[in-house]
Amino acid sequence: MGAGAHPLYRHDESAVHRTPAEVKIVCLLVFVLAVVATPREMFWPFAIYAAIIVATWRLARIPLRWVLPRMLIEAPFLVLAVLLPFAEGGQRIDVAGLQLSVAGLWAAWGIVVKGTLGVAAALTLAATTSATELPAALSRLAVPAVVTSVLVLMIRYIDLLAAEVSRMRMARIARGDSPRALHQARAIATGIGALFLRSYERGERVYAAMLSRGFDGRAPDLAVIGAPPRAMASQWMVAMLPAAAAVVVSVAAWVTQ
């Protein structure tokens, strides 16, 4: 993992990329809270939220062909949403010959629309914020230093774990394994266990190396170690406009409900 990149980071030069990371994190949190707080029975607020996200993508020069494949991470939640209209009780309506629960349909709609908007907003932050910006940003937001250090190490070693998984998969295939065959489930489970043990051993070696270099259990203040300058008031005001617009829309939805 070089130059502070991570798998979801999209290197580019835009106003969104140049915005300090702590501002983008707060903007994401406020935006997501506004989306979650919006009554699911209202449709127009979610269209406005989607427009805000798409406008941010245009400003950050993030193409749809880059975003859409990465949004498949929410697929398990969409499967749950599809099942809710069949599993919920209460009043039922006929849709294409199927008896569906009204409460289940509303619940499914809420999961789909709010989950999709949340994932899209999170991907926007990930695509425009490099891994090197996160430690200082989290420290400036008063996140405990231990939590920040754990997050930094996780980002640092996630690529190594992915490479290890790829090597183990190639080794199995070279020995006649067929990853898609059902009878190979035991071998896959064994590989997962071996990966866990290797990861645990790697963590112990990293911790021992940290101790040998003087680590005493106290995490340093990452906001003052080679960090970029703090966000100015003008940057806060401009960058928080999408979040402020989302809050206004959420409040308006409750007032007009």
From TrEMBL:
<keyword id="KW-1133">Transmembrane helix</keyword>
<dbReference type="InterPro" id="IPR012809">
    <property type="entry name" value="ECF_CbiQ"/>
</dbReference>
<feature type="transmembrane region" description="Helical">
    <location>
        <begin position="67"/>
        <end position="86"/>
    </location>
</feature>
<feature type="transmembrane region" description="Helical">
    <location>
        <begin position="106"/>
        <end position="126"/>
    </location>
</feature>
<dbReference type="GO" id="GO:0006824">
    <property type="term" value="P:cobalt ion transport"/>
</dbReference>
<dbReference type="InterPro" id="IPR051611">
    <property type="entry name" value="ECF_transporter_component"/>
</dbReference>
<keyword id="KW-0812">Transmembrane</keyword>
<feature type="transmembrane region" description="Helical">
    <location>
        <begin position="43"/>
        <end position="60"/>
    </location>
</feature>
<keyword id="KW-0472">Membrane</keyword>
<dbReference type="InterPro" id="IPR003339">
    <property type="entry name" value="ABC/ECF_trnsptr_transmembrane"/>
</dbReference>
<feature type="transmembrane region" description="Helical">
    <location>
        <begin position="236"/>
        <end position="255"/>
    </location>
</feature>
<feature type="transmembrane region" description="Helical">
    <location>
        <begin position="21"/>
        <end position="37"/>
    </location>
</feature>
<keyword id="KW-1003">Cell membrane</keyword>
<protein>
    <submittedName>
        <fullName>Cobalt ECF transporter T component CbiQ</fullName>
    </submittedName>
</protein>
<feature type="transmembrane region" description="Helical">
    <location>
        <begin position="138"/>
        <end position="158"/>
    </location>
</feature>
<dbReference type="Pfam" id="PF02361">
    <property type="entry name" value="CbiQ"/>
</dbReference>
<dbReference type="GO" id="GO:0043190">
    <property type="term" value="C:ATP-binding cassette (ABC) transporter complex"/>
</dbReference>
